[in-house]
């Protein structure tokens, strides 16, 4: 047999290049967006109706001023928390229990793209509900609508921070039922600590509020209702929210790797 035909003498086949983060992220995002699209109408209705109902209830005890700004800002971000904390924790908890992580583990995509793609897809459905809640709340409490464009920064930053936390809860929970419970507890914390005015909270609860990732998004949005917003403080709050988002998504990526190898 000629040496050129000897399989042992042939050069080893080259491996395909490693998948890059952004193309992988876009692919996972499109896939998850298509999957979650089936439930978008109930999702938007429940999340928005809940937040609008809370504002109507609070209208009876809050007249205006800083408390009204806190209620409207907290209720608007609560729409994001409903999806990012509650539903995303349930999704990853069920995905882990059903062996769905094995499917993603076989794909040539970075772990971060799986977490970011799923979080981004679910968070995308919160945009209409958040805007509707902010508009209804502003009209209900007589607040200006001038700076609602800030929500274009608040939604993705607060969504990233809460989505990372929700994904981590779902991936670290040993059972899907526990993941659902943790997600609901997290959303309840976002409700109590984000919607209620900070000045009415006891000191210990106020410290717990500072630890909640969405708090800084709520504070940034609430500041824009002032007649002359302190934009430096708004940018600072958004910067803290972004830093917390990077940290929480890093934790979620670590939790994904940990769950995928078990």
Structure overview:
- Helix content is 75%, strand content 0%.
- The model has no long low-confidence stretch (mean pLDDT 81).
- The chain has 262 residues and is an all-alpha fold.
- It has helices spanning 21-36, 40-59, 65-97, 100-106, 111-124, 126-141, 151-172, 176-195, 203-211, 215-223, 231-260.
- It is built from 11 helices and no strands.
- The N and C termini lie far apart (48 Å).
Q: State the shape.
A: elongated
* Residue share in helix: over 70%
- Could you report the average pLDDT, rounded to the nearest whole number? 81
Low-confidence segments = none
* Terminal Cα span: 48 Å
Number of strand elements: 0
Q: Mind summarizing the main beta sheet? A: none
Strand content: under 5%
Strand-pairing-aware structural class? mainly alpha
Which descriptors apply to this entry?
elongated; 75% helix; 262 residues; 11 helices; mainly alpha
Secondary structure elements and their pairing?
Elements lengths: L20 H16 L3 H20 L5 H33 L2 H7 L4 H14 L1 H16 L9 H22 L3 H20 L7 H9 L3 H9 L7 H30 L2
Helix pairs in contact: 1-5, 2-3, 2-6, 3-5, 3-6, 3-7, 3-8, 3-10, 5-7, 5-11, 7-8, 7-10, 7-11, 10-11
């Amino acid at each position: 047999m000629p040496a050129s035909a000897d399989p042992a003498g042939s050069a080893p086949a080259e491996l395909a290049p490693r998948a890059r983060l952004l193309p992988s992220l876009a692919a996972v995002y499109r896939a998850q967006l298509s999957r979650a699209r089936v439930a978008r109408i109930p999702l938007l209705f429940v999340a928005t109706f809940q937040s609008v109902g809370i504002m109507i209830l609070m209208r009876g005890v809050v007249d205006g001023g800083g408390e009204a700004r806190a209620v409207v800002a907290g209720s608007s971000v609560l729409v994001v928390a409903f999806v990012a904390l509650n539903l995303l924790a349930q999704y990853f908890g069920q995905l882990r229990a059903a062996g769905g992580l094995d499917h993603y583990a076989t794909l040539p995509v970075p772990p971060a793209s799986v977490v970011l793609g799923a979080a981004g897809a679910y968070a995308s459905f919160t945009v209409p509900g958040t805007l509707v809640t902010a508009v209804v709340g502003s009209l209900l409490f007589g607040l200006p609508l001038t700076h609602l464009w800030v929500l274009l920064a608040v939604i993705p930053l607060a969504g990233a921070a809460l989505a990372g936390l929700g994904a981590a809860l779902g991936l670290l929970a040993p059972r899907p039922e526990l993941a659902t419970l943790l997600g609901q507890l997290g959303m309840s914390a976002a409700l109590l600590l984000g919607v209620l005015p900070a000045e009415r909270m006891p000191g210990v609860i106020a410290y717990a509020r500072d630890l909640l990732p969405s708090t800084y998004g709520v504070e940034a949005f609430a500041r824009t209702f002032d007649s002359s917003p302190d934009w430096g403080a708004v940018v600072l709050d958004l910067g803290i929210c972004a830093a917390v988002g990077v940290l929480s998504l890093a934790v979620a990526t670590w939790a994904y790797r940990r769950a995928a190898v078990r």
